Protein 1
Amino acid sequence: MILKNALIYVNGSLQDGALLILNGKIISVIHNNSEDDVKSIQSKNEDGIVIDCERKKILPGIIDIHSHLRDMGQSEKETFSSGTLAAAFSGITTVFNMPNTIPPAINATQIEKWMRKAKNNIYVNVGFIAGVPKDINLKEIISIIELGVIGFKIYPLGSLNEIDWTNYLNVQKILSVSSKLQIPILIHPDWPLSPEETREIYNNGTLTDVPILELHNNLYPTSLEAKYVNFILDNYYKIIADLDLRAENYPILHFCHISCKDSYSLIRKALDMKPNLKVTFETTPHHLLLANTIQLTNPNFGKVLPPLRDEEHSLFLFNELKEGNINLVGSDHAPHTLKEKAQDYLDSPSGFPGFETYVLTLLDKVCRNELSLETFVKVTSENPATIFKIKNKGLIKAGYDADLIIVDKIPGYPINPEVFKTKAKFSPYEDYKTSVQIWKVFLSGIEVNSDDAEPKGNIIKRFD
């Protein structure tokens, strides 16, 4: 297949050119659109397909490092098929899947079932994040790693494994495992409130008619996100000192969905002081673009963890993204049913679908010259591939997988959740306008955003 007459993102900028794709790989990148150059690759074009891209932009496929594909006991919310189809139509060609399945993915047997369920049912590539086995069992951890998981997730608000992640001994134990086995530990940073504190904040909020999204923010405040980040970093330093670790043996630590300037500043300070720390973090599109003052037909559509924050935090984080100080973005795609979201605040679960707004909203900022295209590609494709060691992805380069998104700028139109491919047809981006058209999406050279696409995705494994 040849993609010609395109603007191809190469080495930080858009260049006129054409691509030759063969057996799922990029074979040649031609850096102009002359007929002679296109003819030079036509003889190698085995399938004879030539697509005129009409000067549209070709970017690397998006690698979304944070999603919840559900299925496994939660198929009413999402299935591997519906979730990855939503990703495919959004330009997302690889996703990482979190372990809060039913039952939770905390042992090798359950994770094998999880992977088997995905096989032949995924439209894009999927990497799996495991939960930590009970008692932080090293033998079981090794068995899970041998299955090829990307890393292990810890969640202090509702442990999947009966492990208290506010106990420093447990944190140090999992960090020492990370050091020994060089496997990433992904952190949901939030220090839990006591039931008494929760009741007091909730009762005060309802008595004074605090809006739901502001109340949600009060129940999971920025101070407790920062407290947990600080707690993890303190134990990270202690493990390094106690075990007298050399830099190559430092634990690998990743903070999920950083949502406020308090915790961001703690991580940035740590990295500024010791750049060789194996510490990374992500933020989400909604924590960059939305605040808890948004007006929604149902406020629970914006209920998420971490909560949407006061506007000062989203403005701060977006500015840091523009300045090149944030390296990773993840959607935290977390679908629920409309019935669940129609319940009252306390019963309605946190989370909303993110695949089908991720690219449309962030790339729209590029179209509006509020964010550079180079920054967008770095945080959505290049950096995820590099940081999480995903081979042959994240770049448009000869020898790399032909995971590609072709986009165009068009007149603005409102995002409509009713046409989402995910089962969760609601969004906090009600009537948010975008000027981005996702024209074609290719996974290993196969077009996946079409109604006759078949599930050809693969399971991405860390040590492949």
Protein 2
Amino acid sequence: MEKLVIISLLALCLYLGVRLFIERRSFRLLTEHFLKDPFNKKGIPRELSKDAETLAHTLSNGLHDFKVIADLNSYQRRFLEALLDEIKDGIVILDHNYEIRFLNEAAKLLFPSDQPYATRPFIDVCRDHRIVDTIEMACDLKSKTSDQIDFRMNDQDDHHVRDRTLQIEAEPLGFEEDSATVGAWLLLRDVTKELETEQIRQDFVANASHELRTPLSIINGYLETMNDDGIDLNAPPIKRAIGTMVKHGDRIARLVEDMLTISRLESAGSLLNCEPFDLVSSAKEMISHLTPLIEDNEARVKLNLNGNDAYFIDGDRYYWDQIFFNLIENALKQNAHRKLKITVDFREEHGRIIIGISDNGIGIPAKDLPRIFKRFYRVQKHHSQTEIKGTGLGLSIVKRGIEAHHGTISIDSIPGIETTFTISVPSSGAVPVDKLH
């Protein structure tokens, strides 16, 4: 009996030893497999025990599901980040310590840095306590908070500083009842251009009203005088008054026409009637229209074509007629008492047409050059009621018209010697300068 018990125990020990060996080998193979290629279902070793094989398939299925979910979350995150990067406004996501968790590309342009953004305190990146104060206020109030600040930002090279106006919106994230915030999001919108545009619009309306008020007051004053009983309309003073009213009426008509032109040029991208045409023919035609004024001033206008008979561009001939007319007329009117020499020079460089319009008149003082293209700005101030001044919009029309054709204009002036307007515009079929960069 004792021998039977001993034999049974030995058999049991042998059985358990073999099972232990098989299970240990199975789990060793299983561990090696998952360390090497955990997502390969087909690569599960065949030498596994039944229990180990069941565990292997269970783990493999779980890992596969986990990988699918992780890949989906990663794809969604990349998709959302790419979507946020396309937004032109800066977006920042912060944790409860106001450390950065995400910035889109627009925010990186506002706060350039050569160091990684992730996990850095936001104040170290923005360097403006007013922005952080807005975030803290939003978190304290548990609601969206907005503010507008004047912000000075550096370019990427840190060599240039630009003043910008930022509209800031901040809102806490993850609020629950009786719990603290888990973070906040921040939206930063650069409203500098919008404010500048609005200021330009307000200035334009104010200046236009002022410019129209003076000639209208003069005309109304003369009309009230002529409306009295017994006035002889053929009397010399009345005839002079009628002549003055006609001049001011013409001035009002041209002022309105110039304002309409400025308005059309603001949306010139959709209004330009572009087709190939010769700039030289436009310049010649405008010189022909100005011939009476040229002869009255005893002036001379010379075309210098540098060997070419024509210079073609893709553009709107209507606006280029105004550009040449305004520049040449401006030179004649500003130098009415000189035997003026005006040169219109054409040449071509690197696929662009360079036009220089020069005169040897009185010139423009250096202090006036930065403002010469502003609307209603005049170098010479006229105070006489009989001397009709220009509208002050001619050079503004010139600049806006050239920019609508992807061109540039600059001015150089040496008072008493020479004044030169230099225009650069793509020739027909050339790439605009703003598309080269």
Protein 3
Amino acid sequence: MSKPVKKAVLAYSGGLDTSIILTWLKEHYECEVVAFCADLGQGEELEPARAKAQALGVKEIFIEDLKEEFVRDFVFPMYRANALYEGVYHLGTSIARPLIAKRQIEIATATGADAVSHGATGKGNDQVRFELAYHALRPDIRVIAPWREWDLNSREKLIAYADAHGIPVAKDKRGEAPYSMDRNLLHLSFEGKILEDPWREPEEEMFILSVSPERAPDKPTYVEISFEKGDPVAIDGTPMSPATLLARLNSLGGANGIGRVDMVENRYVGMKSRGVYETPGGTILGVAHRAMESLTLDREAAHLKDELGPRYAALVYNGYWFSPERLMLQALIDASQTYVSGVVRLKLYKGNVIVVGRRSEQSLFDPAIVTFEEDHGAYDQSDASGFIKLNALRMRIAALVRQNRP
């Protein structure tokens, strides 16, 4: 029989599910619960969560603004890798989980807790992301995943439990929600219910961060993003902190109908799931970063990064942020960014991010060599003959052998 739990740190949002988990932990495990709520840019006031936790008898409550750390130490390193899961997903939910888990473990250590808990279901990816991070950071910690233990497997049962235990239930939570949502400074995701039919187009009223491309302004918006060693540091010449910069790109992108993705993705647990995402600022940042690399990054280094990008994205998606292989890849990627500095100019227009200019003191683009005009000896075109013959040698040999066969 496992040892009793004395104290558990819960990743708490103040919503219905985690409020029920908070009460269930105290009832089922007879343990003290520490509530931890991370502000990653959800766009809502989190202080009411404190009052709700206090009303449910919680004594230790942590509500922390982690937006700058989130963008600086998690989002930006990921964008240095040009990571997109299955070619399109900007990993907005995936990249948030390791930070929440990291801070949970730190709070558990500081408060003497011997367990951590989360509200992820047994069908999703988040349970894997949280728990892989827990185990990597503190292998002795006890992990409690209520959705894999309790029998509250329907909204009716959850609401009945809440009513029986005096847990407030908002009026809009008593009906069937049309979809589930997850929001932070990088993105907003929608899943479930009406989106479970892959043929059905999302309703326009669902979107929050962006206008539709059809309703975007008829006049384009121009923006310049400055980079230093692969990270954006300024917009239109104005230096900004990481979180402030991403928030500004969100505003610019959303106003121009940028960043909507509708995809059927492959979850790590084995099933396919449809997700609809809004990532306006991240979409702009991804295009701008690749444009900066196109000017400053060596060809083979760039091509190697393109090979590693999907691997990196899968590691983030599947929850391996703290794994040795992700850390190894990050070291390689960060080394490639030494000279990725300069300015990219973009045109934002009706859902499109169009690169219209780029400049850098580290540019590898040499007009004297590439020009179609006279290059004054900068490039000897006759050198190409030997280059082509050597590269064609294996194909010429194969062709000659086949020609001589009966």
